[in-house]
Amino acid sequence: MWVRVPPVPPVLLAWLDWRRQRTSNASYGSSNLPASSSLPLYTFLVKPESLRMRQWRDARKKLCPDCGAKIAHDSERCMPCSRAFRAFVNRDTVTIGEWRGRLSLKGKHPSWLHAQVRTMARYYNRHLAVNGCMNCGYSLHVEFCHIKAISEWPDDTLIAIVNAEENILCLCRNCHWELHHDLISVETIKSRCISLAS
Question: What pTM, to 2 d.p., does this model score?
């Protein structure tokens, strides 16, 4: 099926031609660019980045939680603070007290305060998830559970000790819920884990 496209009005064509000649003469000079080799029409209709787009991107910027500098909306920290943060999160030298005392964590709820410690636990103990749940053997989705809660450790304890393999259980969601509601015990899980391994 053919679709009839309406012709471009002659007034618009005349205005575009006048605009193209005016811009090419003003920008490049008539001596450098002859009138016959002016820029194509679409260069004046589509701008590479408009002021409006820049304002929209600047409005979406947020502040770095450590230094307060403006950063992109999808970044967590500015580049200098990111490097300092990666150097700081060396689990062999950082204690729980140093982690809780960080400026960006002041006044936060304890569950949010320890979220990054739990993330580190998942990263450093990811090899435990290969065998599935330590209680029932379910392997499609497992969660990491601290035997001794993060909030119960004193401030001078290293994050490496809190997230040590001896303090971590790998459980499915149901067994994790049962453990926190005292329906199963840590000793039961460890005995079943030994029986599943043998």
Answer: 0.53
